[in-house]
Amino acid sequence: MTRKRYTLVLISLLTGWQLQGQELLTKGEAISEIMANNFNVVISKKSIEIAENNTSVFNSGYLPTLSGSAGINYNRDNLKVEFQDGRVNEVNGATSDSKTAGLSLNYVLFNGFNRKYNVQRNAESLNRAQLNARSVLETALINLFNAYYEVAQTQENLKSLSQTLAVSKERLVRAQYGFEYGQNSRLDVSNAQVDVNTDSINYLNAEQSLYNAKRNLNFLMGKREASIDFDVDTGLNFAQLDGKEDLIEKVMRENVTLLIARADQNLSRYDSRISKSNYFPTLSASAGYNYRKGNNNSASFLASNTSNGLTGSLSLGWNIFDGGGTRTATQNAKVNEDLQNYTVEQLTLQTQVNFENAWADYENKRFIVSAQESNLLTNEQNFERTQEQYKLGQVSSIDFRTAQSNLLRAQISLNNAKYDAKLAELLIFQLAGDIQEAQF
Length: 440
Hints:
Blueprint: H1 2-18, E1 23-25, H2 27-37, H3 39-54, E2 65-82, E3 88-110, H4 114-180, H5 186-220, E4 230-232, H6 244-254, H7 256-276, E5 282-295, E6 304-317, H8 325-391, H9 397-431
Parallel strand pairs: 1-4
Antiparallel strand pairs: 2-3, 3-5, 5-6
Helix pairs in contact: 1-4, 2-4, 3-4, 4-5, 4-7, 4-9, 6-8, 7-8, 8-9
């Protein structure tokens, strides 16, 4: 019997050691990791770089084009030349060559405002890319703290299960002592042993859930092969949210999904204007410098000739009818513009509904937290009284186990309610475009 008691004490010490002394992964460190390593966040940043390149003056169409050319031509011929006076001149292997070089400068003076709308479209595309990166980051943060709080919640539940297991082990030891001295029956010992086994299984299952949650958190932070030998910060600070009316105004103004839809709406307008620009003429100017030097063969009258000079031109082109391509493109652009207008209207209504649901859910979960806190206090008081009565032999082991189980359920229910309420709060911050400023 003594050996069993030592075994129970050793298990209790090992359980307590597992819950303490591990490295703490703070919320700030988790955010830094996801900012640096999350795949979607990194990809969205690269998309911004491409959009920034597209807004450069070198992609605007407002700069001229300058091209150069050069060439050498060499000929070796066998010639027979007959003159009017009857003379004949034959030359075998007559050689001649020419060298040319030139520069050409071209500039489009007017192309139906196409360049203007393209520049504006590129700027809006950059805004769209930045909004998309913000959306990706907000989603990554929400996913991060879903995973982070899952670890925290399971970690807290594991502590409650550990405390329950410790109480059950203490009860088993007491029942064994009571049986040795004739105060308890073998049934009391068996019931206590069954409860220890049940609590041990619940503890091991929760421990496995904790390991799985930590691996998921590591993956979201881009740390696939990282250790799971860490704890997280289980502290929660609930924010003081603004009034509902102020929040709904902010949601309509700052919600990133709505802002992306409005950016797409602007892009469709620019596409419509760009397609219409093809109805206008194009006015272009060009200038050039050309140089040529030629060395003639011996049968020529001239031994060599050299020329150089400047050229310039102004051209006007107008595609009066292109087979209906411009008309079709313009019609399709207008339809797409109308579709984007409907999309913005739909998303506006959907966002309002999402906020109303999120607000109601948040208020409900905060009420549940208050109710569970009251419920936990009641169950703690009931367990303390039942425990004292059990030690005095005034209540049965079944009543004690009932009080113990009720306390455990109340502890876990409160833990779950707190983290559910915090996630509901963060959802409101996300809808209002403030998730990066939220107090995690």
